[in-house]
Fold this sequence. Notes:
Elements: H1 3-16, E1 22-25, H2 31-42, H3 54-58, E2 97-106, E3 117-130, E4 133-145, E5 151-161
Antiparallel strand pairs: 1-3, 2-5, 3-4, 4-5
Amino acid sequence: xxxxxxxxxxxxxxxxxxxxxxxxxxxxxxxxxxxxxxxxxxxxxxxxxxxxxxxxxxxxxxxxxxxxxxxxxxxxxxxxxxxxxxxxxxxxxxxxxxxxxxxxxxxxxxxxxxxxxxxxxxxxxxxxxxxxxxxxxxxxxxxxxxxxxxxxxxxxxxxxxx
Length: 162
């Protein structure tokens, strides 16, 4: 990274840190969404009955179908709320990037009919020297809540830019 790229990145991060910069809302989760996701995740094996069999699910502690923890209600296109802006660090020319990993903390289950809202923010960042040269580590926090404002998931994703 050259000095101008570093300055642009740090400036964007300073402005964005701690501020929720993106919000989007999923379509209502449908039984078919959960069923197809579970089939895809467990293929070629059969998915657990809790994800696909309503009679079975009624007898569980949840009393109904639940989505697998890795289910993503945003796998289908939704429109982001444009008024919340966005973090433009990824648009800085000549900045290479790679994924540095994720850490998920789960809350309540996702059920049929849930509408999930996601919002994101920069949690922290660090500029340091590595064998790649000046390297910027950015931890982004994404929070999912359901229509009752119950926490579904918090994800911390590390992005590495150099």
